[in-house]
Write a structure and sequence with these properties.
With 171 residues, this protein is an alpha+beta fold. The protein is built from five helices and eight strands; from the N terminus they run βββαββββαβααα. The strands form two sheets. It has a four-stranded antiparallel beta sheet. Helix 2 links the parallel strand 7 and strand 8. The protein is elongated. It starts with 15 loop residues before the first strand and ends with a helix.
């Protein structure tokens, strides 16, 4: 991923899990079809820490458990400013392309299923988002993470430029 990712320990925080998608995969063998399941799961503390994981197993519950364990290993901190994202950004991963825009208080999460799970887990309550590319939940989740990791914290930008926070947004 990117160099500004900060690894966070899953044991230190209280995480909530959301299952984004469960797929049944068939492998054709001599005796017929053998089914297994893959699950993509998003975990987050609702306060800017979020992660995603993929789990594969012969049973749905095992796949979800593996996905949760994988997600806890891939936690990142994303900037949340007044319950929304700090600025507009475009995220890409494979065929997935997502547009994420800040929204005013009371707007809510206006986003598709896979993106909605990521924003709600991250604690972003007001956001406008549009998936413009692939509808594959794996690519949409990864593109959303790409967008969130491109976000710059307004406090850090103000400190870097040596100006007040209001000057960052109002020029």
């Amino acid at each position: 991923m990117t160099q500004n990712m900060k690894a966070i320990k899953a044991s230190e925080i209280d995480l909530k899990e959301k299952v984004v998608a469960i797929k049944r995969v068939a492998k054709v063998v001599k005796g017929g079809r053998r089914f297994s399941f893959s699950a993509i799961v998003v975990v987050g503390d609702g306060n800017g820490v979020v992660g995603y994981g993929l789990g594969k197993a012969n049973e749905v519950t095992d796949a979800i458990t593996k996905g949760i364990d994988d997600a806890k290993k891939n936690l990142v901190k994303v900037p949340v400013f007044k319950g929304t994202v700090p600025h507009e950004v475009l995220g890409k991963y494979g065929g997935g392309l997502v547009l994420v825009k800040p929204a005013s208080e009371g707007t809510g999460v206006i986003a598709g299923g896979a993106m909605r799970a990521v924003f709600e887990s991250a604690g972003i309550h007001n956001v406008l988002a549009k998936s413009k590319g692939s509808s594959n939940p794996h690519n949409v989740v990864k593109a959303t993470f790409d967008a969130l990791l491109q976000m710059r914290d307004p406090y850090a930008v103000a400190q870097q430029r040596g100006v007040e926070l209001s000057k960052v947004f109002n020029g």
